[in-house]
Amino acid sequence: MEALLDLAMLGGLVSALSYHVGLHGRMGVTRHALTLPPERRLPRPLKIAFASDFHAGRPTHPAIFADLFALIAAEQPDLLLLGGDYVTGPARHAAALCPGLAACRPPLGKFAVFGNHDLSTDDQLIARLFEAAGVTMLVNRAAALPAPFDTVSVCGMDDPWTGEPDGHATFAGAAATRILLVHAPDGLLMLEGHRFDVGFAGHTHGGQIALRDGTPIVMPQGPLSRPYYYGRFPVKHNGELIVSRGVGCSGIPVRINADPELVICTMQ
What's the Cα-to-Cα distance from 186 to each of 5, 32, 178, 221, rounded to whole Å? Predict the structure, then answer.
């Protein structure tokens, strides 16, 4: 199957052509600002960068990753979060991301969760590659940020359907201010009553191919993929969820009306 797919994609020539004629979309920055309640006021604004759905491998030309990492370097975030689906196909493709990830040095750290594509291959190889690049993998656990943001925890949940999500474990020991990191919006179904202030998810690609108004034509599986297909959503009795269109291409090397993006969220 790998050999047949390589043949169909002409060994990467199709994705290269797609990128160079603009069919990967134009990488940009989408900004959000979040105001915390007075009792959880931070010592200064916290600048978070979020990127998801890289899909390194056959469908995505690696030049789009260079575009992303250039934006991260320009933004100089305090914290970098990664939302899964790092590869399409074999886990070894994740190595293409590692030089750029290693060069990112946000002072509060780099945290990641797995996506469904990662868990369908050698996820432990991806974990080893990422950890060598300074990225902390979170599988149903919370990590407190260093001072002066030690009242903030990143709570990373395993993929809702291909992983083993555990809401109680994800938030165990979390600090007062909680950032939820999960691959797919369906993670909202596995919270088990726990609270978060802001959540970040990917998986949907904004449809990857959408109408001119952004309405997706085809959506990935999952009951919340369509209602939470892209953008910022208040979650009833909870915080807000920000869903990114992601970076790379899945299936075919084409994005239409669903440009790749780096999400920048400032908590203040």
Answer: 30, 21, 18, 10
Question: What total number of domains does the chain contain?
Answer: 1
Burial class (CB in 10 A: 0-12, 13-18, 19+), 74: exposed
> How far is the C-alpha of 242 from the C-alpha of 36, rounded, in Å?
15
Residues 1, 8: Cα–Cα separation, whole Å: 10
Q: What is the pLDDT of residue 77?
A: 98
Return the CA Rg of the chain: 17
Per-residue pLDDT, 251: 85
Domain that includes residue 239, residue range: 2-267
Handedness of CA 36, 45, 52, 228 (dihedral sign): positive
Is residue 11 pLDDT above 70, yes or no?
Answer: no
What is the distance between the alpha carbons of residues 204 and 189, in angstroms, rounded to a whole number?
16
Contact 43, 149 (CB under 8 A): yes
Q: Which DSSP string do the residues of 85-110 spell out, in sequence order?
A: --EESSGGGGGGGHHHHHH---TT-E
Q: How far apart are CA 122 and CA 130, in angstroms?
A: 13
Look up residue 145 and give its DSSP letter: P
- Say how many CA atoms lie within 13 Å of 198 toward its Cβ: 25
Alpha-carbon distance 250 to 124, whole Å?
A: 21
Give pTM, 2 decimals: 0.95
pLDDT band at 6 (very low <50, low <70, confident <90, very high): low
CATH number for the domain spanning 64: value is 3.60.21.10
Residue-wise pLDDT for 186-243, tens only, equals 999 999 999 999 999 999 999 999 999 999 998 888 999 999 999 999 999 999 999 9
